[in-house]
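This is your field. Have a critical look at both lines of this record:
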Amino acid sequence: MTEKLAGKVALITGAARGQGRSHALRLAEQGANIIALDICSQIDSIPYPLATPEDLAETVSEVEARNRKIFAKQVDVRDRTALRAAINEATDSLGPIDIILANAGVAPQGVEGVPDETVFRDVIDINLIGLWNTVHAGVPSMLAAERGGSIVLTSSVQGLKGTGGDGSAAEEAYIASKHGVVGLMRAFAYWLSPHHIRVNSVHPTGVATPMVAGNAAMERWLENSVGGKDIIANLIPVDLVETRDVTDAVAWLVSDESRYVTGTCLPVDAGVLAR
């Protein structure tokens, strides 16, 4: 594979598994060194198992197998102080950041036994404020290096529509957070374009990761919620896309092949937004 990203450093949150790991491995194959951050612990309001330290260690092993350097640390994106400390430690070792993939996120649809206020705040804190923290913790390194860069924010098809809204705190928070990502993306693009830093968002339909596939709470919610099935009712007859499908889009957005693309929402949706 051509090393389009040789010499670059990519910061990736939610890197222990799923889309984050997929992105880390592809960017490593293309020549980038990786800063991999993940909470690697459970959150009470999330009804499916989150990543573990062992998952993060597997990401490290697979990046190193591709002959790239990796700095990995357990960090909660809600903690900006911890993010900054981890990033400072990482850049001391690997050099300044060129790419930020703000990928960490949760989807607690179907959660039971947790107060609505807790569910709503946790989703907003992780999916939106955590993303804001990540960008503001990573951008100073990019600005100081004065060599431009690319930022990709992980949203969702539900960041572009409200299908599935059912009055539940979990679904409303998820839709609100993913719409908020689009607003931040546009604000960041305006802020950073004079520095040749591009900012875009990706909007997947359902992806075959532990957040969706095998998540009993999510499956129950999709089956029983009014409009739930419509969320991933793809025009192309596939139930879920694969992580590599999202990674293909991300890899293009961080490459020079998209050097003048900024402020854009890129769906990877199998046509669901056309319904």
